[in-house]
């Protein structure tokens, strides 16, 4: 029988994770966007508008793209098996392990609650254009905002879960932690006050297409950030977080 201590630990972990998938509140007006170098035609094509069933995924605005932010194969050294998903929230990166010391690297957006889940899990299933429903806690905290969505929001272009969602489970069951798309591409590469691990819709579709059921998921801690980016025997490059994490308005959600 599960001990009271273990049950409390699992409940606490789930509550932390519940905070991870809340759609971010509207950000403060941003300063003028700096001019960035144009991306290559190949990168622009990866993030162009694309049909997906009955919907068309919008193109990512050129102002939000850089070659560094685009998905790409990079050197990556790990003992984890090919197909493992490794999330580095502090570096706003996700690595899908490939053969020959490489990985497909994606840029991600993270939330303060993303720091509440670290360790190993797996993804037993995924959903296309998943439904999203606010939690009771969200409804109680902000009924005017979330009340109209109390019965859930069908999947679609404005749904906060985006085009795909990978559902993360561990030995305690559903962690309520998700790797998913987003209708807010400007959040990628940043940390907002809420949200799980978010990818450009084009990237979450690509990741989902290449992820098998029961794939291992590893979420790194701050102390582990940068792991795998340097050959064995060398220290990982220091990772500097460029965003402020504010947990004061996190209320949680469940997709």
From TrEMBL:
Q: Which GO terms describe its biological process?
A: cell wall organization; peptidoglycan-protein cross-linking; regulation of cell shape
The annotated active site, in chain numbering, is: 180 (proton donor/acceptor), 196 (nucleophile)
MF terms (GO), sorted A to Z? glycosyltransferase activity; peptidoglycan L,D-transpeptidase activity
Region described as Disordered: 225-255
Record-linked SUPFAM superfamilies: L,D-transpeptidase catalytic domain-like
- Source taxon at top rank: Bacteria
Q: Which residues form the L,D-TPase catalytic domain?
A: 83-220
Keyword Mitochondrion assigned to the entry: answer is no
InterPro entries, alphabetically? LD-transpeptidase, LD_TPept_cat_dom, Transpep_catalytic_dom
PANTHER family per the UniProt record, alphabetical: L,D-TRANSPEPTIDASE, L,D-TRANSPEPTIDASE ERFK_SRFK-RELATED
Family membership, please give it: Belongs to the YkuD family.
Protein name as catalogued: L,D-transpeptidase
Species for this entry: Paracoccus gahaiensis
């Amino acid at each position: 029988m599960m001990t009271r201590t273990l049950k409390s630990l699992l409940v606490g972990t789930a509550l932390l994770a519940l905070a991870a998938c809340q759609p971010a509140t509207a950000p403060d007006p941003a300063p003028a966007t700096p001019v960035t170098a144009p991306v290559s035609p190949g990168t622009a094509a990866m993030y162009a508008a694309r049909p997906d069933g009955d919907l068309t995924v919008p193109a990512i605005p050129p102002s939000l793209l850089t070659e560094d932010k685009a998905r790409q194969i990079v050197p990556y050294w790990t003992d984890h098996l090919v197909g493992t998903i490794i999330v580095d929230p502090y570096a706003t990166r996700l690595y899908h392990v490939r053969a020959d010391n490489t990985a497909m690297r994606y840029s991600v957006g993270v939330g303060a609650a993303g720091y509440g889940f670290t360790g190993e899990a797996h993804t037993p299933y995924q959903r296309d254009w998943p439904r999203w429903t606010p939690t009771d806690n969200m409804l109680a905290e902000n009924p005017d905002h979330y009340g109209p969505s109390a019965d859930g929001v069908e999947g679609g272009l404005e749904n906060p879960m985006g085009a795909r969602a990978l559902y993360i489970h561990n030995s305690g069951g559903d962690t309520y932690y998700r790797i998913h798309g987003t209708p807010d591409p400007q959040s990628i590469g940043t940390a907002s006050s809420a949200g799980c691990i978010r990818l450009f819709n084009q990237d979450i579709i690509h990741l989902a297409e290449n992820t098998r059921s029961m794939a291992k998921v590893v979420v790194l801690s701050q102390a582990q950030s940068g792991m795998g980016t340097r050959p064995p025997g060398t220290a990982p490059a220091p990772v500097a977080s460029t965003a402020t994490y504010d947990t004061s308005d996190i209320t949680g959600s469940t997709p």
